[in-house]
Design a protein that fits this description.
Arc Repressor Mutant, subunit A, three-stranded antiparallel sheet, globular, 138 residues, 5 strands
Length: 138
């Protein structure tokens, strides 16, 4: 049986941490909800996990798209959506990309109570980042 190599992930550790440190609280809740539901969740349940109405989900997804674009990534690099129309009603299911799930697992993210990466300054003190771009200052 031939060995099939997986393509290199777009979620290198620095890209992963830049993303999770820069996204807003609703976007972070969306990603965590996807992770906690084995990478698959219906739109209504995703909205519930974030703590918003389903009608506001588009704004959260737009925010994720903007953060991904800053990293030269596309929404598909994070998740994909299956849309089913039954009796004229739209039902969407969101799937987290396997590469992101693996990156999160490897990084141990999210840790209970800790959703940003700590940084050690040259002085040896640990500082929590407000934005991941701040790490470049050390």
């Amino acid at each position: 049986m031939p060995i099939v190599a997986e393509a290199e992930s777009v979620w290198a550790p620095d890209t992963f941490w830049n993303f999770v440190n820069d996204i807003g609280s609703y976007q972070k809740k969306a990603v965590i909800t996807l992770l906690e539901n084995r990478g698959m969740v219906r739109a209504a349940d995703l909205a519930k996990g974030i703590g918003i109405g389903e009608g506001a989900l588009g704004g959260v997804l737009s925010g994720l798209s903007k953060q991904l674009k800053q990293l030269e990534l596309k929404p598909y690099d994070l998740y994909w959506v299956h849309t089913d129309w039954t009796n004229g009603e739209r039902k969407r299911t969101f799937f987290l990309q396997r590469a992101f799930r693996l990156a999160a697992e490897e990084a141990g993210w999210p840790r209970k109570g800790k959703t940003t990466m700590p940084v050690v300054a040259e002085s040896g003190t640990v500082k929590r980042l407000a934005k991941s771009s701040d790490w470049r200052r050390f």
